[in-house]
Amino acid sequence: MSKTRGYAISCASIVAFLLFWHFGTKILGVPDYLLPGPMAVAQSAYKLYSTGLIFPHVYTTVLEMVIGYAAGCCVAFLLAALVSEFPVAERIVLPYVIGFQSMPKVALAPILLVWFGFGLASKIILVALICFFPVFVNTVAGLRSTNVDLVDLYKAFSGPRWLVFWDVKLPNAANSIFAGLQIGIVLGLIGAVVGEFVAAKQGLGYMIQASSMNFDVGAMFTCVFTLSLIGILAHMVIRAIQSRVVYWDKPRGSRLTATPSSAEQA
Q: How many domains does the chain have?
């Protein structure tokens, strides 16, 4: 399927969804305070964006997501490399990782709030904790799926461990790592919003909660769609980086590599 045809199908599906939403609310007589139509949401979005009221909240949420995502992914990659290279490290690290991942992150949010306060720090740490696990597991799985014969060939020529890791294991694991990164970027956005729901003075999550107090459903939908747009853009950035870095293995077929099956496999 050509790119033009793919974009046309995507645009057509969006238009069909908006038409279904508009006429569905009109025909069924759904009141605006329960589900406003797309025109009402567009008017609310225009008001928030034209006055600039939403931009500080967008900046705060994106900042929390980017810093937390970068920190969580870096720690996940380093620990995954350590675990994949040294069996002793796996025995030490893996029980803590699995046990910590079993804890609901929503339950940790109030604890992080007590420890790090109402500012950005508590949200950044929550995002990092949520992003950590998918990147860690996918990286370990990718590094361990390396061709054993190729590793043995390097060892036969007295290749040092770091060279085997850099030339053989890391390129082989690149697609798995980026699959984890794509999963993590979406979860990181969720983590930022959850942290803002618990306690925040700014951010899209805070704005959604404040709008719900005023029954401003249009503003709530505007924030939700803004979060969706941020997630789509972040996903596209990761995809663009992947196409540049993993230039030897272009993904085919679907534009999504981080599928639910890959997450379950992780």
A: 2
